[in-house]
Amino acid sequence: MGGSIKPALSPSSVIRFDCLCLPEPKISASDQTILSADSSSKPVTLQCNLTTAHTPYRESFWMKNGKEISNTRTEQRNTVYRITKPRADDSGEYMCVYTFDMAPNANATIEVKAKPDITGHKRSENKNEGENAMMYCKSVGYPHPTWTWRKVDGTSYTDIDNSTGRFFITNRDNYTELNILNLDITTDPGIYECNATNVIGNTAETTILRVRSHLAPLWPFLGVLAEIIILVVIIVVYEKRKRKTNSTNNHKDKNIRQRNTK
């Protein structure tokens, strides 16, 4: 039994390999900005400054809503992005991103907010009773709006939701859609309003829904048929009068000839 037993290492003799963790870079960034609804609003300047970095710095660039903005890469620590003629569609989540040779990217976020601006909607919808109708609205603005629909009747209105079984509302970030099934010619025609609301404000647009009788497709045919009938009646009346006139004239000529022969 010639083997020898080695003594166990004490905790103090265990060699530890601890990672070297560097402090995160520090970035000074502009405060959030709220765009004015006025079309002549002043230019907006977003600014970031890399104040502290413990590893070699490479470059920076700007992103909007998760996508890089072209032609914004620079090697300067103090980076600026300018919006010369700000509109609602310039609002969003902007981010300045700094890259390093030996460390992960660092970034800071600046929110540019604006009330919703509805840029597209159906102005009118013409359908036949029993068919389905679809109306929609599109918007720009940040934060993304909350959408609501209602039917306007003069100074009063009725909120619309998905509880009736015939009205179905589909909402996405900057898009809403209202579908109405099996249109009723009595209750469904009217003015429908989509409303986009966020923390900055709200905007609304209207669509006129017209519902025609299911006989409406026959109206052009019936109109042509009526014109043909009227034309035929005119021709018949004209022919009758013409024959009557000719008969009268012939009778007069006969009387004249008879008097002349005496």
Automatic annotation (TrEMBL):
Domain of life of the native organism: Eukaryota
GO biological process, one term: axon guidance
Transmembrane segments: 218-238
PROSITE patterns (UniProt xref): IG_LIKE (PS50835)
Domain Ig-like as annotated: residue spans: 25-111, 116-212
Subcellular location: Cell membrane
Predominant place of localization: membrane
GO CC annotation terms, alphabetical: axon; plasma membrane
Keywords: Cell membrane, Disulfide bond, Glycoprotein, Immunoglobulin domain, Membrane, Transmembrane, Transmembrane helix
SMART domains registered for this protein in UniProt: IG, IGc2
InterPro entries listed in its UniProt record: Ig-like_dom, Ig-like_dom_sf, Ig-like_fold, Ig_sub, Ig_sub2
Pfam families documented for this protein: Ig_3 (PF13927)
Classification via SUPFAM superfamilies: Immunoglobulin (SSF48726)
GO MF term list: cell-cell adhesion mediator activity
Membrane topology term: Single-pass type I membrane protein
PANTHER family, per the entry: BASIGIN RELATED, NEUROPLASTIN
Protein name, entry field: Neuroplastin b
